Amino acid sequence: MPFKRYVEIGRVALVNYGKDYGKLVVIVDVVDQNRALVDAPDMVRGQMNFKRLTLTDITIDIPRVPKKKTLIEAMEKADVKNKWENSSWGRKLIVQKRRASLNDFDRFKLMLAKIKRAGVVRQELSKLKKDTSS
Amino acid sequence: MAAKRKTPVKTRNPDLIRGVGKYSRSKMYHKRGLWAIKAKNGGVFPRHDSKPKSPAAAEKPPKFYPAEDIKKPLLNKRKSRPTKLRASITPGTVLILLAGRFMGKRVVFLKQLTSGLLLVTGPFKINGVPLRRVNQSYVIATSTKVDISGVNVEKFDDKYFSKEVQKKKKKSEGEFFEAEKGDKKKLPEEKKEDQTAVDTVLIKSIEGVPDLKAYLGARFSLKSGMKPHELVF
After folding, report:
1. Which of A36, B114, B148, B232 could be B92's S-S partner, Cβ–Cβ 3.0 to 4.6 Å?
2. Residue A107 CB coordination number (10 Å)
């Protein structure tokens, strides 16, 4: 079981604790054994403990501690946003956020849709059962 | 008293720091135009002698002096006004009732009455909740709004909902032991008409939104896994 995701300059990570919870950030430098310098297009570059980060599979090609402009260009080139939103992890997070923001009326409509879908599935299933039994 | 101005004048002498004005006494004399008032009055500042007081009626000495000094009650300048309405509750909001006979029902908010209570209706045909008053504290406001522009709620106030005063009947001795005739209170036709007048307009705008009618007909309940502090209403 070797490690696959390494802490390196350019590694994209997800913040899992603190003020910037849920943000995607890029590791731009390593401060010491426990801390990294971390940057994102919409935040001020700052240090963060590794314990607050969860590494993702995405890396980008940047020099050590790039300027904001270079960072943003590199992120565009590597298409971090789309890669993230199409990955199964990213999609799960999006769904979680959507579910959490549902209104009471939305939850009601969701319940009706689930019942409808289950009805359709059950009909198909009963058809199949009839076909196999006959 | 001198004639009052329509709008009070803000001071002509702005503060440089607290306690120190910009203009000196002589400058202020000039600014206020006291020289012009004096000139108009012939070099002297106008005096208004006090009007002769009509003699006050001779007060009789009181018949009763309390043994100890009675305290005057403290002054109460509080004004009564209806409870502050939560910002999330606007006319047309769907509310969830939390207590009482209609617990869990989703209901449309019409207006706030002068007593502070909220006037609310089912509509009656959809979920059985009539025009009713409800306290703001026993209500969850959802973010769903219904278009309420066609509804006229001007005539409803707290007096509309007051109980009718029953005249006390004098009972003779024999009648004391008879069971009181169970008089079922019938709802006056006028109230039924008011209900339908409000509801027909509302139902039309509700039917314009898909699933809203079924939504209002269903009751709200907490299910397994729902965390109220995390739910968005």
Report:
1. B148
2. 17
